[in-house]
Design goal:
The complex is a heterodimer. By secondary structure, chain A is an alpha/beta fold. Chain A has 12 helices and 7 strands. Chain A has a 5-stranded parallel β-sheet, sandwiched between helices. In chain A, helix 1 crosses helix 3 and helix 3 runs parallel beside helix 4. The two termini of chain A are about 15 Å apart. Chain B is an alpha/beta fold. Helix content of chain B is about 40%, strand content about 20%. Chain B is built from 13 helices and 12 strands. In chain B, the strands form 2 sheets. Chain B has a 7-stranded mixed β-sheet with strand order 2-1-3-4-6-5-10, sandwiched between helices. In chain B, helix 4 runs parallel beside helix 6. Chain B starts with a helix and ends in a 7-residue tail after the last helix. Classes of the chains: A alpha/beta, B alpha/beta.
Amino acid sequence: MNNKEFAKRVRVDIVEVFQKMGYGHYGGCLSIVECLSVLYNGESFINMKNLKDPNRDYVILSKGHAGPALYASMHIKGILDDSLFFSLNENGTSLPSHPDKNKTPGIDMTTGSLGQGVAVATGIAYKNQVENRGNYVYAIVGDGELNEGQCWEAFQFAASKNLRNFVVFIDDNKKQIDGLTKDICDLRDLSEKLKTFGFETIRVDGKEVDAIEKALHDCKHSSYVGPKAIILETIKGQGVQSIEEIHNNHHMRPDSALDAKITANLNRLKWELENAIYE
Amino acid sequence: MNKELREVYVETVRDIALNDDNVFVLEADLATSMGTDTLKHELGNRYINVGIAEGQAICVAAGIAAAGGVAFVHSFASFLTRRAFDQIFISLAYAKQHAILIGSDAGITTETNGGTHMCFEDMALMRSIPNAYVYDISDTISLEEVLRYSYTKKGLHYIRTARKKVDKLYDNKNVDIEKGYSILKRGKDITLMVSGILAGEALKAADLLAEYSIDVQVVNIHKVKPIPCDIVQASIKKGVIFTLENHNVIGGLGSAIAEYTSAHSPVYVYRMGVQNQFGQVGKLDYLKNVYGLDFVSIADTIRKNFKKEVQI
């Protein structure tokens, strides 16, 4: 299927599972849908017969609270089946809120303590590069997560070791739990920062799968012998209007009024899928 | 010939790494202090200096493990365990990654680097991590054996050690790390359990106490977690158990033993070590005196307290 359809299916999955649970990290899951869709719908090399293939591409969701978005992408791809996907956060589940490589198949790293996933990803990239495997390591970081100094230790390491197989996606949805990222701890010119840290950096529209895919292709064909950063201009709650409209949409437990609005948005998405409207 | 502990570290890790392409050796800008900079040429890309970034060192080790390898990570005990604790806890232990961490300049062996560098709480921190292995090194033989043991056993291993010379304790490699302890001196009156570099002081204290007709059994504990329960159990019948460590009396060897005895038998456990204090500059002998870790102070404490009983 094309990336737009894949993304729409992932979005429907996320809303459905959160409605079933009655709560969820709506904002940061929805903003990363397009990026994850591009990766899971073909750009990331996954060996479906051997998820631990040492030559696979690695995807590390450093912003681990977006676990459900990762799971939805894996569900649509066919790595997780229906019953596992819908067991999200149930008592005793093997699908916990934050990804756990020891509980769920296909998860490359356990994440949740912000800043650590991206740093671990540089370690994975380092080992794979010195072993000349030719694969890629993708790390997904939130803009709020960049408050953590660990991220910058990771970036310095990636650049100083010339990790050309390392691509970091930054979900620049402009918000963190307590407000706008520019009010809590202003990132200023993120592109300039990353360039000075030694990353070849592109900023793209994070709502457009084609733009993300093109950016990734440009990274792969780049002659730059070092790490790459793709900054995604996104909206927290992306693609579900009733969620986008809410200022504090990091983690929500919708009341019945909001739930009704979400259902309306969900039904529209489903209708579009049934009628092959993917835009 | 009595080698420095850092020499033994380099030799052992070199031997392991040259025989296994999946082994990596990591430093956080203390390679020169530990002598591992010589490994750069022999190991090439499998030797990594991340710079002054202990959290990054731990995360890189976790990445190496996630990609099928295993890393030896060194820094001073203080920076490795206190500074990078969440990284150790989450990216290594919680994620079930195999890694071997070496915290050097343990306790008072930091000497003149002083209070900011001196770590008396690394065992307390590391013991609280589920499934972690915690070792306190007493000499070159136990260091080599612990390094080899932790390489073969999947899990999180924390090895605290001095860097330079310590008194030789063992003659041959009869140090059983799986068992976790060695009886250095048999005695029938009371037990003195010691870990790390104070093993020598414990033996000297036992000699002194013999003059008072107190026959002390000295047990060297190599593996503080999991604590070797059998020797603790066996020691209970002798009465008071004295413990001695180059570490805070909160959370280390003494606490581990007291945790066991409190659940099994009302024996008095007298914990000798650093009495919940900060570190300071000083040469080793001075610091031993300041913190009551010299053999005269130890013998004195034992002589005054060995008849203590738990009041019920």
